[in-house]
Amino acid sequence: MSARPRTQLSERRGRSDYPGFRAVIKAVGTGPRGSRALTFEEARGATAGLLAGDVSPVQAGAFLVAMRIKGETPAELAGIARALRDAARAVAPDPPNGGRPIVACAGAYDGMSEAPQLSLAAAVLAAAAGARVVVHCGSRIGPKRGTTPADVLVALGGPLRPKPADSLAMLERSDVALVHASAAIPGWDALAGIRDEIGLRGPLHSAEKLVDHLGATCFVVGHTHSSYRERILGALELLGAQRAVAVRGMEGADILRTGRPSAADANGPLEIGEAPGSVLRGDADPQIAAELTRAIAAGEEHGIAGHTAILSAGVRLYASGRCDSVGAGAALATTAIADGRAAATLEALLAS
Which of 1, 92, 213, 251 has the most beta carbons within 10 angstroms of its beta carbon? Predict the structure, then answer.
C-alpha cells in the first residue's frame, strides 16, 4: 500500500489564514466566483484525511456538501478514487490477471428500490462466458437505501460481508466475486455515516465506483445523469484503466435499461439493440432478486429480467475484451446459459 498523502493546501487572502483542511473547504466552497477545482493530489490528500479520521465530522460534511454544489472534475474524481485505492486492502490473484483482465463493476452504492437488483446475475453470466468479474458495493447507504448486490448474495446463501480474502477465493473458484467496501476499505463505514447524515449524493458516491478491487484493470460503471459519463470515463483514463464503459442504467445501476439502453466508452456511445416499451419493474426485495438470479442462470427466466441480465452481461464481456460488441457478448452469455455453464458458475460462487 502506498503512503497516505497529507493535505498540504493552505490559502491566505488578506488577513484571513486558512491552514490545513479549512483551506480545502475554502477552495471548493467559496461560491461560483471564488471556488476552484482541486488538483488530483489535493483531492487525493483530502480524501485520505477523511478516511483516516483526521478531519472533524463538521469539516467532512462541509467539504462533501461544497463538492456536491460545485460538481467534480475528472481529475478530482480520479484523486478521490486514488485515495480509496490507496486505503483498500491489497488483495489480488497471483498472477494478477490470471491471463485475463478483471472487470470491476459497480452501480450506485445506494442500491435499487424500484426494480430487482440484477448486477450479480449479469456478473455470473459474464463470468460463465469467459470474463472475470468483480461486483463491489457497500452496506445500504442514503439517500436511497435500496437493495445492493451484497443483499442479493446474502439472499442466495452467500456471506453477509465477505472479507477481501473471501472475495478473492470467490473469484478464483468461479471467476466472479463480490467485494464489500466496508470490509475492503478502512474508514469507509465511518465516512458512510457522515454521508448518511448529510443525505445528499456527493463525490464519494461516484469515486467509490472507480476502485480497482482485486486488481481490476477494466471497468463497468453505472451512473444516472448524462453529465457524469465524461467525468467517469475521464477519471478512469487518468487512473490508467485498460478499458472502461459507463452505463446510464436504471437508478444509476450498472444494469442497462433494455428499452433504451445507453452505454459508452472512450470512443463514444456503444451500439446496443433497443426493445421499445421494455421496462424492468418489480419488487426490489433481495429474495426476489435472488430467485430471479437463480432462474436466469438456469435458463428458466425468459422475460424482461432475463433479457436485462443477458444484455448487461454483454457489456461486461465487451469491457473485458472477450468480444467486439455488446450484442456479441449477449450471444456468448446466452450460450453459457444454454449449456449449463451459468448455473455451474453461480453454484461455484456460493460454494464455501
Answer: 213
The total of structural domains in the chain comes to 2
CATH at 123 = 3.40.1030.10
pLDDT in tens, the chain (352 residues): 455 555 555 544 444 566 789 999 999 998 888 889 999 999 999 999 999 999 999 999 999 999 999 999 999 999 999 999 999 988 888 766 557 899 999 999 999 999 999 999 999 999 999 999 999 999 888 788 899 999 999 999 999 899 999 999 999 999 999 999 999 999 999 999 999 888 888 899 999 999 999 999 999 999 998 889 999 999 999 999 999 999 999 899 999 998 899 999 999 999 998 888 888 888 889 999 999 999 999 999 999 999 999 999 999 999 999 999 999 999 999 999 999 999 999 999 999 7
Report how far residue 239's alpha carbon sits from residue 259's, in angstroms, rounded to the nearest whole number: 32
Residues 23, 159 share a domain: no
| Containing structural domain, residue 25 | 11-71
Q: Is residue 266 part of a domain?
A: yes
Residue 8 three-state SS? coil
Angle (CA) 196-200-205 rounded to 5° is 80
| CB-based contact 318:270 (threshold 8 Å) | yes
* Distance (Å, whole) CA 49 – CA 56: 10
Distance CA 119, CA 130 (A): 17
Same domain, 131 and 279: yes
Q: What is the CATH number of the domain that holds 21?
A: 1.20.970
Q: Vertex 181, ends 180 and 183: CA angle to 5°?
A: 70
| Set of cell numbers at residue 259 | 428499452
Same domain, 116 and 187: yes
Question: Phi-psi region for residue 282, left (φ > 0), alpha (ψ -120 to 50) or beta?
Answer: left
What's the CA gap between 319 and 159, in Å, rounded? Answer: 27
Cis peptide leading into residue 269 (ω within 30°) = no
Q: Are residue 29 and residue 157 in the same domain, yes or no?
A: no
Q: Flag whether 81 is in a domain.
A: no
C-alpha gyration radius of the chain: 20
CB neighbours (10 Å) of residue 43? Answer: 29
Same domain for 129 and 65? no
